Amino acid sequence: MLSLVGVALGAGGSLFGQYLVSRTNARQLDAQEWAAHRAELKEVILKFLGVAAQISKTSAADSRIGATDGVSDRIVDDLWLAQAEIDLAARTEPLRGATYRYALRLAATVRGEAVDVEALREAQVHFMDAAYDDLWPSQRRSAGRTNAP
Predict the structure, then answer these.
(1) What is the pLDDT of residue 139?
(2) pLDDT of residue 140
């Protein structure tokens, strides 16, 4: 009888050990997948910000960028491509929406439309907050943020 109890305890301990190992492996796999996704998202966010910086530099040098200019067409194409990449990689809808609204304002800048500088800055802030929240969801940057300049 004692040997039967010993076998049962040994089998139970073995199953519990296998459960702990599989749970640890699942957590490690989740962490690796999350890190890979974060790296991909970071890459497309930086690409988008690079295009945005290029537009800002160009618009600062020339207050009215012509829509018929081939360079302007390429910049707008790059902008919307970068926006689409974020749309595909983002895990949250706020990031997708903020990216689209910021891209819309940037595209208007390239087309030479009168763009409210404050509205453009606000779109940029919303984009950055949404990007931060998507990259680090447990560390809310925008939750404690005030609207102070």
Answers:
(1) 72
(2) 64
**End-to-end alpha carbon distance in the chain:** 77
pLDDT tens per residue, range 28-39: 777 788 888 899
How far is CA 14 from each of CA 3, 7, 123, rounded to the nearest angstrom?
16, 10, 56
Q: Give tens-digit pLDDT for 5-25.
A: 777 778 788 877 777 777 777
Q: What is the distance, to the nearest Å, from the Cα of residue 72 to the centroid of all Cα atoms in its chain?
A: 25
| Helix, strand, coil abundance in the chain, percent, nearest 5 | 80, 0, 20
87 touches 102 (CB < 8 A): no
HEC secondary structure over 23-57: HHHHHHHHHHHHHHHHHHHHHHHHHHHHHHHHHHH
Q: Which two tokens stand for residue 33?
A: 């997948």
